[in-house]
Amino acid sequence: MGVQAKAGFLDRTLRNIWKGWQSIAGENYSAEQASSRPSLPDEDLARVRNQMGACLEGRGGEVSARARAAALGHVYLALDETGKERFLRTLNDEFNISKDAVDEAIKEFQNADNTKDYTRAETNLRQSLESHRLKLLFNSMHYQTVLNF
To answer: Which of 101, 129, 130, 25 is nearest to 69 (CA)?
Structure first.
């Protein structure tokens, strides 16, 4: 896949995420409500990082998950270009797969010596390879009714 194709896919994905967050937030989302500083300075970034983590926890059921995704969407939509870049860099750098978890899952997979252990190890390996940032983005997009891929 060429650089242009990757960029096109990323642009479409970000556009769809933005549309999804905007549909959750509504047309009248308040920038003041979401973030008082659109450039996302370090103090605000720490709060956003915690919001990202809370979105991944999945506690409280679907209504709570929707509210957390909407709140995070409010923040993103209120950011300026610098803030959006910081948001996406944080998402990329801090919510990737865990190399340690993957290494552990690979060892478990290699050491499985029966069907039950093999099945469990395969599931653990697959889950360890799922990027947390993608889970976060897809969970946020879950509430969008139509995806335009």
So the answer is: 25
